[in-house]
């Protein structure tokens, strides 16, 4: 019994230290903490384990609960990114903006039981929510019927990786070409019916160079095979995270320079417990899922064993209040699409709201 108790305490202590390290490392660039930043992928698991240990020791009235409690407290502001309890609110559709973001996998995701094409499925699923703005990643021109949207901006070269479709006039556009990669971001400045202009980014950050099959096969490998596979995966993940660093810093600089309040939607290829997410969100963008979603919010459906949320809709907190958030659960892509209903609120102080003279 003493041995079992010692093992439990040791595992608890290691998990508490690991979680605290994950929260801390997310504030540092991956280049300064090579390989360690990859641990952010384990954050949802470590949070669940530490909640379990905290309850286990509290029920037994043991002070050992403090280790997990302190670890959870170290990232208190980030816990809502793992599991949301918002559930949404009832609002009038007036003065709202419905946004959909979807990595569509080039509209070529294979499903042997499919009765309709991926493009048809995605178009039908998106139409069900009647969004005002749609952001696609891995978009291919001409494959999906988006005729309901009068205005659009698609990446002007490279086959059209990212795209923004809008029911409202687009008065300005631009793109961010990240170096040494096919990943990128585009933005469209959209004039809303009440006259305000907002900048909407569709973002696809550096892919991590691993396939879902590689991850799903881990449970069937021998110990030697698992060791070799894990080593290779770790190296590719670290390379991807390091490349993301310069991309998110460029994106953040663009957001800071924007004359308009911003919405950033897309596939970040990283979790909320990462330098990438925290850099993009900054102090002015709020995560729609954390405010109005419910559950784990899993978006990368191709990995079956783990609830990875790597797709996001972030909105300027002075201009928008997330009221509803939903996941578009479809087998038309390796990602689930996401949608948020954003309520327009008055901008306080000197927020990024275009005056009449500044509007194009």
Automatic annotation (TrEMBL):
The chain crosses the membrane at residues 12-29, 35-57, 64-84. Keywords: DNA damage, DNA repair, Endonuclease, Hydrolase, Magnesium, Membrane, Metal-binding, Nuclease, Transmembrane, Transmembrane helix. The keyword Zinc-finger does not apply. One of its GO terms (molecular function) is metal ion binding. InterPro entries: Endo/exonu/phosph_ase_sf, Endo/exonuclease/phosphatase, TDP2-like. It comes from the Bacteria. Its cofactor is Mn(2+); Mg(2+). Pfam families: Exo_endo_phos. GO terms for biological process: DNA repair. Residues 100-335 form the Endonuclease/exonuclease/phosphatase domain. This is Endonuclease/exonuclease/phosphatase family protein. The lineage of its organism: Bacteria, Pseudomonadati, Bacteroidota, Flavobacteriia, Flavobacteriales.
